[in-house]
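Data deposition worksheet. Section B asks for the primary sequence of the deposited chain exactly as it was used as input, without tags or linkers unless they were present during the calculation. Section C holds the resulting structure in C-alpha cell form. Section D is free text for depositor observations; keep each observation to a single sentence. Incomplete worksheets are returned to the depositor.
Section A, Depositor: J.P.
Section B:
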Amino acid sequence: MNQKIRNLGIFFLRVHDRLCDGCYLAAAWMILGMALIMSYEVLVRYFFNRPTIWVADFTDYIMLYSTLFVSAWLLKHDGHVRLTLVYEHLSPRSRQVSDMINAFVGAIVCGFVIWYGVRDTWDAVGKSIVLPRPVPVPKYLVLGVIPFGCLLLFVQFLRNGFKFLRDLKIGSKNEEAGSNAFSNE
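Section C:
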C-alpha cells in the first residue's frame, strides 16, 4: 500500500512538472502573439488610420495569463526576483530556514488566492457576468486563470518548502554526526 501511495505521489509531481513546462511554453507563445497584435495595432493605426478597439484589452488578458502561467516554472527554476540585502548576510543554515519559511508562507498566500479565486470565478459563471469591453468577454475567462496559476504556484511552493525542510534535517544530522565525532576524541 505504501508503495502505491509513493507511486501516486511521483505521478502527481510529474504531472505538475509537465503542466508547468506546458504553461511556460504557452506563456512564451502568448508573449509572441502579444508582440504581433501590438505590431498590427501600430500598423493599422499609423499607416491606415484604422485603430482597433480590442488590442488593449487582449494584451491585458495575455499579460495576466502569461504571468500566472509562468510563475510556477520560474519558482521551480529559482528565477524570481529577490531582495537579498539581509539574506546575503545570513549564515547558510539561517538562509535555509528563511527559504523554508518563505516557501510555506508563499503556499499559504496562494491557498487564500485559490480559495477566493475559485469562489469569484464560480460566482461569475453562476451569474453569467460579462465584462463590458469593446469585445465582451465572460468574466470567468479572465478570473479562472488566477486560481489555476496559483494552484501550480501553491504546489511548487510546497515542493520547495519540503525540500528545504528535508535539507535542514539532513544538515542537522550531519552537524550532530560531526559534533559527535569530535566528542569521542
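Section D:
The beta strands are 130-131, 137-138.
The radius of gyration is 23 Å.
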